[in-house]
Amino acid sequence: MISIRRYLLKYLISVLTLGSLVIAYFIFFHARDEINELYDNNMVDIAATLESQMSVMPFAGKGLLGPSQRVKLNREEEFLVEVWSKEGESIYRSHEHIHFPLQSGRGQFITQYDGKDWRVYSLDVPQGVIQVSQPQHARDIFTRQMALQLLIPMIAQIPLIGLFIWLTVGRSLQPLSKISSAIHARSASSMEPIDSEDIPVEVLPMVQALNALLERLEAALQAQQRFTADAAHELRTPLTALQLQLNLLARSKSAESRETAIGKLQTGIDRATHLVQQLLTLARLEPEAITRAHKVVSLTEIAKTVVEQQAQQAAVKNIDFGLNASGTSKITGDAESLRILIGNLVDNAIRYTPEGGKVDVELYSAEGKVTLNVTDTGIGIPETERGRIFERFYRVNAQQGDGTGLGLSIVSHIAKQHDATVEIISNLKGGTTFRIAFK
In terms of domains, do 323 and 417 share one? Predict the structure, then answer.
């Protein structure tokens, strides 16, 4: 399991350590250049001072004012000062046990002696040559000491920074712990939004997304509860009717009464079956149900399939039933849902059209929109009831027809899924036209 706190601590400490080493590296070379420049200038100053004093300085043999007995120069401020006569004889050496030879070059330069780099400043004077020199390693020791003195505090502060990061990140993650505790404290049916007050801006999008999810879950839960209640209510009536019809069949004594009871029982079974099918279809269309990827489909081909399937139902009532398609009818959508939409419109039209009537399915394209019309010569829909016909289980003239009141609710769901508009054109004498315009 990944820990944000450990992840940040690990990488921030690594970056700090690496940064400190890089800084120390650059400090070392920068300090080395600065120190070399400083002590090179000191060498020039020493030579110039010695030149100005040579006429009054008492040279005694090979020493002056007690030459040093050192055999190495390990301090950055210590120089080897030598004076040579015009004949090349050493007349003064500040460290009599360091035998650095007279160099042929003049001015400032670097040379090799005893396998090491030496920095040298050589100056011609009337008495001979003044030579001031120093091994590079003496300066490097000082440079390393300086870099180390800067690096140690930088490295020493890393544990303190790590502790600060650990505490700060922990404090910053407290809102997540608060959200987690709030979620754990909820019941399975609690869909109230999580309080976003005092939430950091970095966490706010997650809280908003979670609240949006809770809102969708609440809608889905309410739809499920509503569906369960509606299904229980609507199934009670046909099941009771089936029980009564079964009792009538059991008490029937003559063949004629049994035939009548069987016919009514079959009708009740058909109605209950149709109701269950419509309920299952509606459940699949509820919010958060299984969503299918939309693709380009032909409404004409779907309508032909529906007309073929419903032709027998129309023939039983001697209804003039047909399809008229013109122009393009291709849209982006889900073929199965569109088949259900057209099927429900056609089924509704046939159910509420009297025997000998007419039902037409028409498809055409105009102004970039594909339009579907399903027209019948049925009982019509009063204007006062048109606003309610898409409600579940609402039936116009419930005493007529044997519908469930779910077909148009299903049509409304599918139309919304396809961003289509539904228009009703109806009168009580001329039947009804349902017009679906797809964008």
Answer: yes
Mean pLDDT of 138-156: 82
d(CA 59, CA 1): 81
Q: Are residues 12 and 149 in the same domain?
A: yes
Alpha-carbon torsion (48, 54, 56, 58), positive or negative: positive
Burial group, residue 185, by CB count within 10 angstroms (0-12, 13-18, 19+): exposed
Instruction: Kindly give the residue spans of alpha helices, DSSP state H, lying in 334-380.
Output: 335-351
Structural domains in the chain (count): 3
Residue by residue, DSSP assigns 50-105 as: HHHHTTT---BTTBSSS-B--S---STT--EEEEEETTS-EEEESBTT--PPPPS-
In the block, residue with structure tokens 């044997």: 402
Which residue, of 283, 306, 321, is where some domain finishes? 283
Structure tokens at 215: 């809102």
Q: pTM for the whole thing?
A: 0.47
Letter for the amino acid at 28? F
pLDDT at site 147: 78
Among the listed residues 211, 434, 429, 420, the one whose alpha carbon sits nearest the alpha carbon of residue 334: 420
Instruction: Domain of residue 395: give its range.
Output: 292-438
Buried b (16+ CB within 10 A) or exposed e, 415-433: bebbebebeeebeeeebbb
The SS3 of residue 428 is coil
Residues 73 and 119 placed together within one structural domain of the fold: yes
Q: What's the rounded mean pLDDT across residues 60-82?
A: 67
Report the 10 Å Cβ neighbour count for 302: 23
